[in-house]
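Researcher: Last one for today. Full complex below.
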Amino acid sequence: MRPRTDWLAHFVLILGCVLFVAPLWMAFAGSTQSAGAIARGQMSLLPNLSGLGVYGDVLVHGGPGVGPVWHMLLISASMAIAIAVGKIVISVLSAYAVAFFRFPFRMAAFWMIFLTLMLPVEVRIIPTYTVMSDLGLINTFPGLTVPLIASATATLLFRQTFTAIPDELMEAARMDGAGPWRFLKDIVIPVSAANLAALFVIEFVYGWNQFLWPLLVAANPNLDTIVIGIVKMIGIDNAIEWNKVMATAVLALLPPVGVVLLMQRWFVKGLTEGDK
Amino acid sequence: MERRTIFPGWTLPALLLLPQLVISFIFFYWPAAQAIWSSLTREDPFGLSAQFVGLENFADLFADPLYVATIWRTLFFCAAVAALSLGIALLLASFADREIRARGFYRTMLIWPYAIASAMAAVLWILLLHPQIGMLGRALVRAGLNWDYQLNGAQALLMVIIASAWKQISYNFIFLLAGLQSIPKTVIEAARMDGAKGFHRFRTIILPLLMPTVYFLVVVNLVYAAFDAFGTIWALTQGGPGKSTETLVVKVYRDGVVNLDLGSSAAQSVVLMAGVILLTALQFRFLGKKTTS
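Model: Here's the assembly. Have a good evening.
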């Protein structure tokens, strides 16, 4: 249809790619060079392959101001998975109740879940801290995760998906004698698989990228996530070992980027078809 | 759309809803109510009793020129982030929508940055723009600019705007590309036959059809800049130097958590609550338009 190469489009898009790849490449190239050279401003854009040992070093020993990176990655991964799975489970259950049952205060319950959207942690910061501390959740792993698994967006998305399941399917299932659990397990979950996958990616990234919440409720260095850790690394006044900072940055980016790339197709569909 | 067939009973659905409702109540509604209550009260100096003072805390807040300055700074920051991020994303999406070779590759390369945390965006931009170690930062210094975002407020503000907008490009790109792809090819073909070309076609045919998505994204970006960009600002400048990058959320965190000024922090929380309710209401208005059009 268009035999001529669209040079302008290629030019703009390559520039766009560079905008995102260049910082990442710079972090990778820098991570393999000596801290002294970087501090003197003598960083090269070519990685020094003999410097790759820094990755093993930060994974096992950490860097100034933080513990070993493997431990922070483990906390981040556990947190991201706990939040993603938790959000999906309780949202599927609530959306299922709202979509397939009729009971008093059904819409009131739905609105109560929906309106949490308007109460991000920033607007209730001190009282939330007080509640967390009254419940003994400060500096605990459940404290890091459980309060974040309520999800208005996931509930909304699942309700929308479940409402689109045709009545005929439900009638057929009931004629076969399927109760609510069988119907959920054998019909509703399988037909919503694409949404589940998309939401897993969105919520995994959400959990991995949390910053204000761990900053607020987990001062204990044993609960440092990788994002908190790297901000601590650049926050110390002097003796920042930039190669270690850059290696940690690369390691912190790999898991969420990997999840997005692996599940790109479902993720994009789920994101744009849902609300957020 | 109402279902004709439903399951009977109400105990099971109540149990299914319970976990979500309990978490919402304990960690969302109860603290929010507390914030509203303490914004209307004042504790005595020893913290022994609280007295109802009506809107006095709010009157104090808005009489404070520093707070009013922070409101304006936040509005400027949000507008700049939304405009920059949406502008670049729109440019990239409109080219990625063309039928060119390797477009799948380009799309992937512009989608992965969705995974970057706000605080990580700050770290990556520090590595680029640090006056001593960053390549761009050093280039700016060599070019004779007095570049040091740790000392110069305007430069610091520029840097948090760039880092925050950069992080949000990918999200906007995903939505704008989906919006462009949902425009029927027949419409574009008809415009082509009528001789509408290039930018003219984009402005008169494509952009109007894309506007519902753009409105929706404007609100999402404002919410992002006002709230989620906290990670970028805190990691980059902590609101400094001075107060030059302090937004409302940075201030509520600093006054409440760092300086433990609870009365003012509660009133600030309630002001933010009003803001987020307004923005969310707008967002769902546009969302409704987006899905029905």
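Chain B has twelve helices and two strands. The beta strands of chain B are 41-43, 50-52.
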